[in-house]
Amino acid sequence: MKSKERPLSSVPKFIWSLLAIALCMQLFWHQYFIKPSQQIQPLSMPPSENVLRIFSFGDTTTSAKLLALWLQNFDVQQGYFLSYKQINYHALIAWLKLILALDPLTEYPLFSASYLYSSVQDEDKLRRMLDFIYNQTLVDPTRRWRWLAHAAIVAKHRLHDLPLALQYAETVAKHASKDMPDWVQQMHIFILEDMGELERARLEIGGLLASGTLTDPNEILFFQQRLHALEQKSNATDSIQRHE
Amino acid sequence: MYGVQRQRVIKQIVTLSRYSLLEAWYTHVAWLVVGILAVGYALAMFVGQIALTETNATQVSVLAAFLRLAAVYLSCLFVISSMVREQQQQLWFLWLSLPLSRSVYCAGRWLGYALLTLLISGILAVLLSCYAPIVPVLMWTVSLSCELLIMISISLLCVFTLPQTLPAFSLVAGFYLLARSINAIQLMADGVLLQTEQSLFHQTISFLISGLAFLLPDLSQFTLTSWLVYDTASLAQILIILGQTVIYVSLLFAASLFDLSRKNL
């Protein structure tokens, strides 16, 4: 059967040379003249949600996923890792909000906010990120509670802001659902105790025991002991105050 | 007598559709489908490497969007290039010189292309089923087939009107992008109208957009990635899509026949 193409030897030598020279020139050009920009690009504000919806061509889920991947990799530019301190958190939060608006069922932005952007060594930026998590959890608390529970831990241990941690923990407890672990629902009690709000903690534990939501006998025993310890602590504090 | 004639027409339509499928085979469409599968798989692997969370969901959504776009691109371009070749090589004169009506010719061609698109969507769904549950993938495949049927019908109409590849493909691409985004455009126009003073200009624009939305199928409701990622597809949605497809394909087919019947060959 006759081949569709003539052999390589049929190609004239000048065409071979032209091909080789052009290829070498391209390699040379790329090596010496194409330099990647060394300038770090700042994160700009996102376009409006409506514009992005139009350019998603009906597939906002995919747009949201791609934007989440792009945003996640924004801190790696020109082979350098930017610290989160260098990123404009105002724009970052706007992008995260936009991704959630495009795909309300995704948890990628809240994951990034909780585990990536909350590691920033800047208290103001950290507070803004926690505030973002808090506001977004209020939109859909049954699905997003875990991120607020994490935010409560961050507020307590990194910011040492117990009132803020309590606010988050109480919000989580307020929207308790069956799939929520008990420790999350009870987190605010321990924060109250840390804050020295013994009376409120005692009332919360008493309410918890009376509500009948606890079913595990060991857990009931633990809270009964805890309640007893709190009562003793509370009495001791009262007697000291009376002596004074 | 009537039965014999009907049998002859069906035979002609089937023969023509067989030729369309043979043409797809000889123009290596099968290899292109294999190429799409390979690129799709590589894309899913790449996305799987860079996603920190929701890895499977991200892989499925990126893969589904890629496969949908690739299927639409391949189907439309094949229909347009096939019909342009037929017109430029004047093969359709040969077909129509036979005892074959123009409507039978159009139906035969359409059926061939439709079978090809069903085959393509079925093959692409096999790769998707490796990443997503089977029931949502089935619903997604039915919806993709409907979307492709609409797209090959509009391609056929455009190629009868503009018998050159570039203008016909541009028109089809414009139609696709507009049909996919008309819902968002309409919402945006209505939103602007609510926020601002209802000037005559705004009202006219809103009216035009609403008119356009009436004429276009809302493709943003077709082949949703969220079905695969969050398992949100329902039978009611599929029935609506099937209904829209039957109506719109009938409209486009009638328009194609209208255009072909008016041609002075």
Short description:
The complex is a heterodimer of chains A (244) and B (265). By secondary structure, chain A is mainly α.
What does it look like?
The complex is a heterodimer of chains A (244) and B (265). Chain A has helices at 13-32, 49-55, 60-72, 89-102, 108-116, 123-139, 141-157, 162-174, 182-185, 187-194, 198-211, 217-243; strands spanning 76-77, 80-81. With 244 residues, chain A is mostly helical. Chain A has a domain at 165-244. In chain A, helix 3 (60-72) runs antiparallel to helix 4 (89-102) and helix 11 runs antiparallel to helix 12. The model of chain A has no long low-confidence stretch (mean pLDDT 85). In chain B, 38% of the residues are buried. Chain B is mainly α. Chain B has one domain. Chain B is 85% helix and 0% strand. Chain A binds chain B through residues 50, 53-59, 61-62, 65-66, 68-69, 72-73, 103, 105-108, 111-112, 115-116, and chain B through 47, 50-54, 57-58, 61-62, 64-65, 68, 177, 180-181, 183-185, 187-188, 191, 219-222, 224-226, 229-230.
